[in-house]
Amino acid sequence: MEIAPTKAYAIYDAARVTMPALREPDLGERAAVELIEEPDRLQRVERGVLLCEESAVLRRVVVRDRERVVELSTLDFLRILELEHRIQLADQVFALADGRTIPVARGEDG
After folding, report:
1. Which helix (H) or strand (E) holds 45?
2. Residue 36: in which H helix or E strand, if any?
3. Is residue 10 classed as helix, strand or coil in its secondary structure?
4. Which residues pair with residue 14 across a beta bridge?
5. What pTM, to 2 d.p., does this model score?
6. Closest by CA position to 52, among listed 28, 68, 36
7. Are 56 and 44 in contact (CB under 8 A)?
8. Which among 29, 30, 70, 104 is placed 20 to 30 Å from 13, CA to CA?
9. 55: nearest Cα among 83, 78, 31
10. Dmax over Cα atoms in the chain, in whole Å?
11. Which residues pair with 52 in a beta bridge?
């Protein structure tokens, strides 16, 4: 994990001067990809991991070298934890985090 200045954020920050209520979808993902694609950031065989809220984000963010980026959504990550038996049900954890209600599984008599 690293905090680094990016052009994506600088442009957004400058635009907020004239548009204080500006919201920029996918800004974090664009900034992360910008860093991953810096020429000296990764060695030749290394790849950057992009953690994002949902798996469709790379369809909206320009990535010049997709082979260098591993996209991992929140739900993907939860499913990995489920497979490793670190959590019980990925979908249940995701729904709880998303604020949705979960039907409680009941036995046949109840």
Report:
1. none
2. helix 27-36
3. helix
4. none
5. 0.62
6. 28
7. no
8. 70
9. 78
10. 63
11. 73
Collapsed DSSP state (helix, strand, coil) of residue 61: coil
Q: Which of 89, 87, 101, 29 is nearest to 58 (CA)?
A: 29
For the segment 11-49, what is each residue's pLDDT rounded down to a tens digit?
999 999 999 999 988 888 888 888 888 888 888 888 888
Beta bridge partners of 73: 52
Q: Residue 62 is which amino acid? A: V
Under a CB-based contact definition with an 8 Å cutoff, are residues 61 and 33 in contact? yes
Is residue 18 within 8 Å of residue 34, measured between CB atoms? no
Whole-number Å distance between alpha carbons of 34 and 28:
10
* pLDDT at 106 (0 to 100): 45
